[in-house]
Each structure stands twice: as structure tokens, then as C-alpha cells.
Design a protein that fits this description.
Length: 292
């Protein structure tokens, strides 16, 4: 696989950070809000002073105005694990550049941001089953592990998100942010794996990486089509009517995928591999509230 990412690109992302939609727990000091009370940089509210409270947290300005003792309360900012589930099935070989390359670059960029945010980050490549994973850890050494793992990927096999999510849940116990990066071009029902992730309490972010021809192919004529994941072949004469039928069915497929994700309060971001990655991150993911 080609060189995935360069330092100049990463430096241009350095001012961004991950956001978590739900209040999550965590183990170390980091960048997401925890429901557990405690001292941190993030002010939450006031409450009445009770004997025994630390006088350092009394708001003396309010006392001076209202002669009322109020104590500042805070929410503790702790890290959450960020899990990257990256599709490495055979269909990801397609595209210009290949969808696998774009997906890997995206996972590296977002993993870098999460690590800078002091989160634990893990990588879970999948096709028919979960492949060898990189367990969640802190520190920029983890970025090197990401880079080595993604650089060695050879996309092959069929896609089974259901089996892969089953493997993922058996390997992890802690809720976090699950970033699914895939073309999602599978006949499998995604309802069950999405339901299992949602039931555990994970925040799901789905990023669909497509080639422009996945959405709107333009070539006509007689073709021998081969399913890249099953090797099944079909002879078909493609004309304008065939292309229009394909576009209609693809739009229906996309609408169904979006409904499944919305039912789990999971955003779907769709990107084609000809869109500059930096623009997608800065414009689409920021506008969607995933980054800030």
C-alpha cells in the first residue's frame, strides 16, 4: 500500500478534537465529559454550601452580591476509548484511489486527533471476521502501531459486519466511540450489529467510503461483471435504462442504510475517494459535530 500520511497533513489537523455525544466514563484525564462529579477544568453548576465543603470552591463574588454561600460544582473530564473498525474486505480494493487507502488515511488522521486528545485509541480491521487488532492505548507510540497495521493491509474476503461486531464486543468491555469506516456494500442486515453496539452504550459514527462509480456508473455496453468478494460472474448489456435502474436502487439502498443508523442515533457521513481528505475532515466532520 502507498504511503498513507505525511507530517504536514497531520500538523494541519492539530487544532481539531473529538466530541462524544453521550457522557462517558473513562480511566485517565482526557478530553470527554464524565458523569462522575469531581474537580476539572469544566464548570457545571452551583449548589448551596453545606458545612464541610471546601471553602476554595465557594463563589465569593456571588456571596458579596447576594450574601448567599454557593459552591461551584464540576464535571470531571476523562478519556473514552475510540475504536476504529475499518473494512478490509475485497470491495475496498476498488476506487481511484482505492477505498482501502482512503479509509486507512482517514482512520490514521482521526486516530491521531484522538491520541492528541489523550484518548485511548484502538484499531479493529474486519472483513468476514475481525482481523488482528491493535488494542486501545494512549500515547503517540500507538499511532506508529496504527500506521504499521494499516500499511500492511491487503483487502480481501467478504464483508460480515455482524460477525465482526460480535468479535469486537467479545474483545472489548468498555463503552466508547465506535467509528465504522466501510463502503457498507453488503447484502447483510446491519440492524443487529448496530443494535448490539447501541445496546452496550457505544457512540456510533459511520463513515461510508465510496468510489464515484459506486454511486453513478457511466459506462455502457456488454460487460462481464465479477463480484470481487465472491468471484461470481454475470454477463450483462448495460444501456441508459440499466444505469437509471442502478442509480434508483442505489439511492434506495443508501436511504435504508441511513434509516438504520438514524434509528440508533448514529450519524452517517458519505465521502467519495476523489474528495480531498482534509476538506472532508475539516468541513463535513466538523459540520456534523464529530470534531470541533
Amino acid at each position: 500500500m502507498q504511503q498513507l500520511i505525511d507530517e504536514d497533513f497531520l500538523r494541519r489537523l492539530a487544532n481539531l478534537r473529538f466530541m462524544s455525544h453521550r457522557r462517558q466514563g473513562g480511566r485517565f484525564s482526557g478530553g470527554h465529559v464524565s458523569p462522575r462529579a469531581g474537580m476539572s477544568i469544566e464548570f457545571a453548576d452551583y449548589r448551596d454550601y453545606v458545612p464541610g465543603d471546601d471553602l476554595r470552591y465557594v463563589d465569593w463574588n456571588i456571596y458579596g452580591r447576594l450574601e448567599r454561600l454557593l459552591v461551584k460544582t464540576f464535571v470531571q473530564e476523562l478519556d473514552v476509548p475510540v475504536y476504529f473498525l475499518v473494512d478490509t474486505s475485497a470491495s475496498m480494493r476498488l476506487g481511484r484511489p482505492p477505498k482501502a487507502v482512503y479509509a486507512s488515511q482517514l482512520a490514521l488522521a482521526l486516530g491521531y486527533l484522538a491520541l492528541r486528545n489523550l484518548d485511548r485509541v484502538g484499531l479493529f480491521p474486519f472483513a468476514e471476521r475481525l482481523a488482528e487488532s491493535v488494542p486501545p492505548r494512549h500515547g503517540m507510540a500507538q499511532f506508529s502501531r496504527f500506521l504499521r497495521a494499516l500499511s500492511g493491509i491487503d483487502p480481501q474476503g467478504r464483508t460480515s459486519l455482524a460477525r465482526s461486531v460480535e468479535d469486537f464486543l467479545s474483545q472489548t468491555r468498555e463503552t466508547g466511540i465506535v467509528v465504522l469506516i466501510s463502503d457498507f456494500l453488503t447484502s447483510d442486515d446491519l440492524g443487529e450489529p448496530l443494535a448490539r453496539l447501541s445496546y452496550r452504550g457505544d457512540d456510533i459514527v459511520a463513515i461510508q467510503v465510496l468510489d464515484r462509480d459506486d454511486i453513478a456508473p457511466t459506462h455502457t455496453g456488454p460487460f462481464r461483471f465479477q463480484d470481487i468478494e465472491t468471484d461470481e460472474q454475470t454477463l450483462l448489456s448495460v444501456g441508459p435504462g440499466t444505469l437509471e435502474t442502478y442509480r434508483t436502487r442505489f439511492a434506495d439502498f443508501e436511504a435504508a442504510l441511513r434509516r438504520q443508523l438514524e434509528s440508533r442515533k448514529a450519524p452517517l457521513f458519505v465521502v467519495t475517494t476523489d474528495r480531498p481528505l482534509e476538506r472532508f475532515i475539516h468541513e463535513d466532520l466538523r459540520a456534523g459535530g464529530i470534531l470541533r
